[in-house]
Known about the structure:
Blueprint: H1 5-18, H2 20-33, H3 43-50, H4 59-70, E1 76-78, H5 86-110, H6 114-125, E2 127-134, H7 141-144, E3 150-155, E4 160-164, E5 169-179, H8 180-186, H9 191-197, E6 207-216, E7 223-229, E8 232-239, E9 247-251, H10 274-293, E10 296-301, E11 324-329, H11 335-352, H12 368-381, H13 383-407, E12 413-418, E13 425-430, H14 432-435, E14 442-444, H15 454-465, H16 471-478, H17 487-497, H18 500-514, H19 519-524, H20 528-537, H21 592-595, H22 611-617, H23 624-631
Antiparallel strand pairs: 1-14, 2-3, 2-9, 4-5, 5-6, 6-7, 7-8, 10-11, 12-13
Helix pairs in contact: 10-11, 15-16
Amino acid sequence: MKLTVDEIRARVMIVERERQGWKSLAQVWEKMWGLDAGFKQDWRDAVEKEGREQVTLPDPLNIVNLGKRLISSNPRIDVPPRDVDDQAQRTADKLKGFLTAMWQRVNWQQGRIVLDDAIWFSLVRGRVCAEVKWVKEDLPKLIQKRNFPILIRTLDPFDVGIKRGPMYVEYAFHKYRTDRADARQRYPRLSIWKQANNDDIQTEDTQVTITDFWWTNPTTGRVWNSILVDEEFAKKPVETDYPYVPIIEVYGDSAPTKDKTYEGLSILHGLEELWPYKCRLASNLGTAVLWAVWPFIAVQNENGQIVDDVQVRPGATVPVPAGTRFDTIKAGVDLNVLQAMLGQIDAGVQQTAFPNVMYGDSGNMNAGYGINLLSDAAKGRIKSFLEYLELFVTHINELVLALIDEFAGKDEIGLWGRQEGTERLYRLTIKAEDIDGYYENQVKLRPQLPQDDLQVQTLGVRLADGKYISRQTLREKYLSVAMPEDEQDRIFAEMAFENPDIMKNVTILRLMDLFPNGQWRDLVKGTPLEQVAEQLIKPPTPPPPPMIPDMGMMGPPPMGPGGPPPDMMGPPGGAPIQPPGMAGPMGGGIPPEMQGQLTPEAMGLPPGMPPELFAQMMGQPLPPGEELAALAGGGAPPGVM
């Protein structure tokens, strides 16, 4: 499904028109975060020229910073197994470890905490956008060996547009401005560069517009891509192997209205008028304090003499002419009214964002459960942002697995990671066959809220001791710290070490590792561990050679693929059935003086019977190799006389 330049530009304009209302609001939110309260005058000029204070309160900045601290930037990723067998569980654990390490590697590669940037966009702009692309072939050859082959970066929501259908993303684009020099270096064969050479106005620092446009073919579902530089194709429409459109967008606070303006809202929405008024009110209060503390002083002389400028200093005496009088003009400002009004506005700010207790100010609250209640309220305030960010990370993980499955081929992709809870480093590699079209994952961003956990943890311990809940539930639900995934195995190991016998073996094995050159023997010599060590390192007893049952006068059973005849075999696990009259081995019932005089013919056996087998029947054991050779009918093995 090829699109022309005009068709692509028309789709871009439609989305930009729908997003214009939100973009206007987002610009106001960002100014608030930048502490632009709308004052037209510098505060120094206001104080010095007009005697008026100008106060800018840091509420928007504090709200955003607190929101960033409340949302963890280390995602907790789970991959459900594809099946219920052990192999599926091991593969799921492998993918889980890979995705966890991937976010750590991406942060290092980008030089930024990518998810922290996404949290900022969510809280301030009300929208989060990211780009996920396979870039291995686009990197220099030396860097291909070192860098992660997938690019994951956040995009400015102002530069992104997405059109979603009821079931999938129909098209998306990343549109941005850059210098002509940068664009020419990337796309040197465009005709617009030739036109610029004949135009004196166009210079290398003149900016051009680049539009990276992706769309889904509604018939085949294949993803197409093209790149525009101004109004010319830098990359003509081409069908790609991407399984999904590689541009992702989620929201902050969201409202399901037809107006795209409120589709994604900032946490600062609602303070557009309240916060500037609070700043003006604080400025009035500061001005009132300024005039109340430093009142205006009028100096006059009844005799008409000139009074020099009087500088009042603590402990100083300044002589003035006779008849000089000082009048103090003090403004009658009702500070209580201003403070009460400021308290009302501050309460509105807290209700819109976070209570002051979340900043460490407990006020009159002393009970721990009160702090927990306010923490739960703060958790509810960031609930929408948290859930959308979890969806954001889930989409990125899914697209990463899909790109590896599609483009990696037989190559292995290895990563280092640090395990949460233990802080241990691990390394693992995955291949496309480990994924095999399975991209499912779930993400949790644990809110980091201040709480008084002592009472909750005490209750959990009592429930576990009373056998109302398991200790595993206690660790998962009642403890606020991250626990290692193998915590249950560690507990079992510690319980095993409490056994004195097992601990002795562990001590011997540990000494062998620490002193491998035999020095450990000197350490345990003369101690109770010496006997334990002898038993531990004693070589195992080899199993006895297989015994060939004595078949008596009937001779050996026919040895074929199916073994002896069924009627010659006894019950399962028992001895073979002997012919009638044969109670045991032949040698056991023959007098010693007759044993050397018996021949196979005298015993009624076939004349061609191997002598080794006849000797065994007479009670003379043979080596196992000769036994098997005799039973097989081949006589003694080669080299045996």
